[in-house]
Specification:
The complex is a heterodimer of chains A (158) and B (288). With 158 residues, chain A is of the alpha+beta class. Chain A contains five helices and five strands. Chain A has a five-stranded mixed beta sheet with strand order 2-1-5-3-4, with helices on both faces. The relative contact order of chain A is 0.16. The mean pLDDT of chain A is 96. Chain B is an alpha+beta fold and 288 residues long. Chain B has a domain of 112 residues: Enolase-like, domain 1, CATH 3.30.390. Chain B has eleven helices and 14 strands. Chain B has a five-stranded antiparallel beta sheet. In chain B, strands 11-12-13-14 form a four-stranded antiparallel beta sheet, sandwiched between helices. A three-stranded parallel beta sheet of chain B has the order 1-3-2, with helices on one face. In chain B, strand 8 and strand 9 form a beta hairpin. In chain B, helix 5 runs antiparallel to helix 8. The N and C termini of chain B lie far apart (56 Å). Classes of the chains: A alpha+beta (158), B alpha+beta (288). At the A-B interface, strand 4 of A face helix 2 and helix 6 of B.
Chain lengths: 158, 288
Amino acid sequence: MSKHHVSTTINGEPTEFLCEPQLTLLDVLRDELHLTGSKEGCSSGDCGACSVMVDGRLVCSCLMLAVEAEGHAIETIEGLARGKDLHPLQRKFLEHAALQCGFCTPGVLIAAKALLDRNPNPTETEARYWFAGNLCRCTGYDKIIRAVLDAAAELRGE
Amino acid sequence: MLGYTAPSTVEEAIRILAEAPGTAKILSGGTDLLVQLRSGRTKPDLIVDIKKIPGMSGIRERDGAFVIGAATPGAVIGECEALKRVWPGVVEAANLIGSTQVQGRASLAGNLCNASPAADSVPALIAARATCVVVGANGRREVPVESIPTGPGRTSLKPGEFIVEFHLPKRPARSADAYLRFIPRTEMDIAVVGAGVSVTLDPGGACTDARVVLGAVAPTAILVPEAAAALIGHTLDETVLAALDQAARRACKPIDDKRGTIEYRTKVAGVMARRAAVIAYERAGVRR
């Protein structure tokens, strides 16, 4: 079986790649396009370390075939900062020390971006439910939630 | 070697499936299929992605009835205010499947055809008298949702057949549904027991029509007419709820596993049925 040619947009840049049908979007992001910010944790959609946005919708890139990206807009952690200017979420994660080993962090940040895009003023409960699919094995959930709510307040101009 | 194709019409998909040598798998949201591909539990020769077919994703309202495309993600279902008003139980059940990330992809057709006895959306769809439209080389048929799963991982779909949409009927006044599941944590787990209840009430609050469906207590979700009979003709009181509880428990044929023993699942099924009935009655009472 020949490789599939896929045309997509990644972090605003038109991007084309060739891939075998069994490869996941995560495989192609990391191994073909060298966007290694998205992490491979469980490969079964449980941990959220591979979270990306597809047409503005949060998904696990390990649960999507790369060929399915045809015609869709993908946003990864690499697109969050503007050059050297960190996104407010990234700054707040540093300020609140909302990470330890950092492996879950790219997925958590993308999930946080997806949350605040939809709901600029989430309650703590809403945020905690939203992040149910992002596992942090360093047990940093409280700091993550504080950083997200603080970033949300800043983005609202409070 | 695995092949992939994304047909742009139902007819093209039917033809591809009919002509495919070896085994073909339908790809909708992929949240079960990709896990099974990776683990080697399924080894198809061809993946047929139905999401490029118009109408496969999205919700349409027609004269008070709803049509939900087979591949509509849970997140889209949860954002449909009109559907939430009329079928709150179906929506809450669909939205219980997996995490936020999984909701971005997971579909009703996938949840149904993966045929887990613990699938959350299935009891709610059956309680709602939902039907699904199945297409294949022999044409198109509309069948009740409960006719699809035949056992864990098995369905009544013939080779080459797939679901294109779900139909939810128009609702009489004072009708509502509810779905509850029991899991040991608060989010992202597989149901130990699920219960879907749909009711219609008369102006005095007595039940005129009911459907009670249990999940994860038998090889498939089970419709329990005896439990519905316990509700019909009655407003909710302790006697009625006790009869519902007993009928639900009697219908259970669960397995013992790490999520719960037979005894535990049976007991919890009665409790979930009661609580879901209370919610459905409350919702129906305020929906004129």
